[in-house]
């Protein structure tokens, strides 16, 4: 034992050593419990960090204020966790999970986000002092797990990065820093806080946009919906090509095999489509032509299984042919859907030759 430590401090350290296996068990179990709950709630976090305070660090703390602790159970940060989120508003979501999973010592917990000092950005964590209830986890070999309190800090990625950078500069080390450097650090803190807010605002706007797209798609106001990845996925959920696909399948009483239609997004954009309304108009104006192409294709085969991509591909084929884009346009379509290949040029010439006499080409 260190003879410079008081008898009470030495006793606390002895208690710490005896409980070290329990602390280490907690440091394994608690993060996993949190991650399970985050997965169930659909919350994505950047990281869940944990640590058990080293004896040297604890001894230093006890030298300064060991008298305030009656026993080792009064020390609430021997086991510490930090949950780092991507967005500000996710901090509260994480907090709600922590509140459901653990017992919170509200008297000793603190919401540092309510601090308004100009240089406090990196320290605006939400700190909970917690205890594991038996209903969440119990270990007969280590019943102390349900008695020991531990700390959970919740902060954003940018707050975490700032705290680490600020610490590395020696800003909190007790060294006197010239005012100009303090001012520059404070300016940077303000910028990072604005960025944190902006990230959350943008995410909310994107969520609002997606909900609005879904409403417009459901209401049929497709001409108002810009063609992009989100809107196209929402549109595919209502299966706009379904009626034509079933009509084509009926030619040979074929089974329909569902496939991913996302490659058509790039093709539609290359064809100059700007909104979902353009795709809807394609279906309306070219379904008969697409059906004629399918009749020719399937009439010379005994196919009893067709891909769900046959409808949009035949629609695009008919559109390209009617626009007069010829074999070059057809090859570009096949390259976009199947990847560049020498065989696409042959197939394009074949399509051009075999469809030239179909009724829709002579209108």
Q: Distance N terminus to C terminus?
A: 99 Å
Integer-rounded radius of gyration: 32 Å
The CATH topology annotation of the largest domain reads as: Beta Polymerase, domain 2
- CATH superfamily label of the largest domain: Beta Polymerase, domain 2
How many domains, in number, for the residues?
2
Largest sheet: 6 strands, mixed
User: Could you report the average pLDDT, rounded to the nearest whole number?
Assistant: 88
Tell me the number of helical segments per DSSP (H or I, 4 or more residues long): 12
Note the overall shape.
Answer: elongated
Share of helix among residues?
A: 55-70%
CATH class of the largest domain: Alpha Beta
Beta-strand level of the residues, as a percent range?
5-15%
- Which parts are unreliable, with pLDDT below 50 for 5 consecutive residues or more? none
So, CATH architecture of the largest domain? 2-Layer Sandwich
| Count of β-strands | 8
What would you say this structure looks like, in words?
The chain is α/β, with parallel strands linked by helices and 363 residues long. It has 2 domains: 7-159, Beta Polymerase, domain 2, CATH 3.30.460; 229-362, no CATH class. The protein has 12 helices and 8 strands. The protein has helices spanning 7-41, 55-65, 88-101, 157-168, 179-219, 229-236, 242-249, 263-270, 276-299, 310-323, 326-338, 342-355, and strands at residues 47-52, 79-85, 103-104, 110-111, 126-131, 149-156, 255-257, 305-307. The strands form 2 sheets. Strands 1, 2, 3, 4, 5 and 6 form a 6-stranded mixed β-sheet that branches. It has a two-stranded parallel sheet with strand order 7-8. The N and C termini lie far apart (99 Å).
């Amino acid at each position: 034992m260190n003879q410079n430590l008081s008898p009470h401090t030495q006793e606390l350290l002895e208690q710490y050593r005896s409980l070290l296996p329990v602390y280490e068990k907690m440091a394994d179990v608690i993060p996993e419990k949190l991650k399970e709950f985050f997965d169930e709630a659909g919350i994505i976090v950047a990281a869940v960090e944990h640590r058990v305070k080293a004896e040297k660090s604890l001894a230093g703390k006890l030298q300064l204020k060991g008298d305030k602790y009656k026993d080792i159970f009064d020390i609430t940060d021997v086991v510490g966790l930090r949950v780092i989120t991507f967005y500000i508003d996710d901090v509260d979501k994480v907090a709600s999970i922590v509140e459901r999973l653990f017992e919170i010592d509200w008297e000793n917990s603190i919401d540092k986000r309510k601090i308004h000092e100009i240089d406090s950005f990196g320290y605006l964590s939400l700190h909970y002092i917690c205890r594991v209830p038996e209903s969440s986890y119990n270990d007969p070999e280590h019943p102390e797990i349900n008695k020991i309190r531990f700390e959970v800090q919740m902060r954003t990625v940018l707050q975490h990065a700032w705290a680490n950078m600020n610490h590395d500069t020696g800003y909190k080390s007790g060294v006197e820093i010239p005012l100009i450097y303090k001012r520059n650090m404070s300016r940077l803190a303000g910028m990072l806080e604005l960025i944190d807010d902006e990230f959350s605002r943008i995410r909310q706007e994107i969520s609002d946009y997606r909900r609005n797209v879904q409403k417009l798609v459901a209401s049929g106001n497709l001409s108002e919906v810009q063609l992009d990845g989100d809107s196209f996925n929402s549109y595919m959920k209502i299966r706009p090509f379904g009626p034509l696909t079933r009509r084509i399948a009926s030619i040979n009483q074929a089974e329909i095999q569902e496939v991913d239609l996302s490659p058509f997004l790039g093709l539609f954009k290359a064809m100059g489509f700007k909104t979902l309304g353009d795709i809807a108009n394609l279906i309306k104006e070219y379904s008969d032509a697409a059906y004629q192409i399918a009749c020719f294709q399937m009439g010379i085969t005994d196919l009893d299984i067709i891909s769900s991509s046959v409808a949009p591909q035949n629609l695009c084929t008919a559109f390209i042919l009617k626009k007069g884009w010829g074999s070059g346009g057809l090859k570009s379509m096949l390259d976009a859907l199947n990847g560049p290949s020498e065989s696409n040029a042959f197939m394009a010439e074949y399509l051009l030759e075999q469809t030239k006499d179909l009724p829709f080409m002579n209108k």
